[in-house]
Amino acid sequence: MSGNKKIILPLTTGLLLSGIALYVVFKNISLLEVVDYLKTVNYWWVFPAVAIALMSFFIRVVRWQLLLSPFKKTGFWSAHHPLMIGFMLNCLLPGRVGELARPAIFYKKERVSFSKVLATVGAERVFDVVVLLLSFVFVLATVDISPNLNQTFGDYHINKATLEMLGMTTLKLVLGLIACIALISVRQSRMLIRRMILSLPELLFFAGSDFRAKIREKLCVRLAKIVDNVASGFDLLKRPKKVGLCLGLSFLVWAVAGASYYVMALGCPGIGLSFFEIYATMVILCFFISLPSAPGFWGLWEAGGVFGLMIFGVSAKEAAGFTVVNHVFQMVPVIVVGLISAIITGVSLVRVAYESVEDRPRGKGVQTETTKAFTQTR
C-alpha cells in the first residue's frame, strides 16, 4: 500500500467519525449560544490548568524512562523530546502516527532497536488502559449517580443501570487484559503461543507448499514477532517493584491530568462538579477518542466531554462550551512543546511523519530480526 493510501484511509475514516460526532453534539445546541458561553469563561484559570497538564507529561517521561531501563538507561531530556514530538504528531496527523514516530526518533538518536522501543510504547498504552478501566469501575462505585438518571444524547439514552453494566464489563476486560499480559510474559506459555502461530499454515493442507511458506513468512512470523515485542515491552514484570512503580506513575499521570481538567472547570460557569465527577468525564472522553478520529481528535473529544458532563446534570450548552475550551488548551501546549523539542533535536517532522505512515522506521533491522526469529523457531 502506498504512503498516500495509508494516509487517506485513516484520515477519511477519522473525518467521517468525527463529522458524525460533531453533528450529534451540536445538532441540538445553538452555536451562537456556545460562542456567548465562551465569552463568560474566566481564562485566567487556563495558566494553572496548562501547567498541571504539562506536569502529567513530565510524569509520562519518567515512566517511559523506567520502561526503557532494561534496554538502556536514558536521561530525562533524551526521553522527553521523542515523547513530546510523538504526542504532538498525534495532535496534528491521523492514525496516531506519533506512536511510531517516537520509537523512530529514539532509535535514530540513541541507537536502540526500533522494535524494542516500540514495545515500550505499547506497554505504556497497556498501563494507561488498565488504569483508565480501573478508574472507570472505581468512579462508578464511588461517584453518586442518581437512580433517576435518564440522559439523552442524540438518539442514545443512558441511565444508572447502563453505567453499572458498563462498569462490570470494564472490570472483566481489565482482568482479561492482565491475564493475557501474564500469559505472554511467561516464557513457556509464550513459546507455546509462538509454535501455535507458526504452525497455522499447516491447517491449509489443501494449499501448495509455496503458498503455505509465504503465509508463514508474511503473516505468522510477523505475528510471532509481535508477541515477542509485547513480552519484551513487559520485561519489567520480572521485577515486581518496578511494575508497581509503573502502575503508580500511571495512576499519577491520570490523576494529574484530571486535576488539569478540574482547574479548567473552575473558570467555566455552570460546571460546578467535584474532582471525581470531572475525572469520570475525562475517562469517558478518553474512551471516545480511542476511536479513529480526525487529527486533534476533533468531534469525538467534544462528544465524549459533552456526554460525560450531561451524566452529571450539566446543561448541553455549558458542557459543549467547557469541552471546546478544555480541548483547545489541552492540545495547543502539547503542540508547542513538541515543536520546541523538534527544533532542539533537529528532527524533520515531515520526514518522520512520512516514514511512520510508510511504516519504514523498522527498516532492514527489523526484517533481519524477524527472519532470525523464524529461523530459530524451526
Oligomer: single chain
Coarse shape: globular
Helix content: over 70%
Structural class: mainly alpha
Number of H- or I-type helical stretches:
15
User: What's the number of extended β-strand segments?
Assistant: 2
Average residue pLDDT: 78
Strand line-up in the sheet with most strands: 1-2
N-to-C order of helices and strands: HHHHHHEEHHHHHHHHH
Strand percent estimate: under 5%
Domain tally: 1
Description:
There is one protein chain. By secondary structure, this protein is mainly α. The protein has one domain. It contains 15 helices and two strands. The chain has helices spanning 3-26, 31-38, 46-68, 76-92, 98-110, 114-142, 160-185, 187-198, 209-233, 240-266, 275-289, 300-311, 316-345, 349-358, 363-377; strands spanning 150-153, 156-159. Helix 2 packs across helix 13, helix 5 (98-110) packs across helix 6 and helix 5 crosses helix 14.
Keywords, separated by commas or semicolons:
disordered C terminus, about 375 residues, single chain, two-stranded antiparallel ribbon, 15 helices, 2 strands, globular, mainly alpha
Set down the secondary structure blueprint:
Elements: H1 3-26, H2 31-38, H3 46-68, H4 76-92, H5 98-110, H6 114-142, E1 150-153, E2 156-159, H7 160-185, H8 187-198, H9 209-233, H10 240-266, H11 275-289, H12 300-311, H13 316-345, H14 349-358, H15 363-377
Antiparallel strand pairs: 1-2
Helix pairs in contact: 1-12, 2-13, 3-4, 3-6, 3-10, 3-13, 4-5, 4-13, 5-6, 5-14, 6-7, 6-9, 6-10, 6-11, 8-9, 9-15, 10-11, 11-12, 12-13
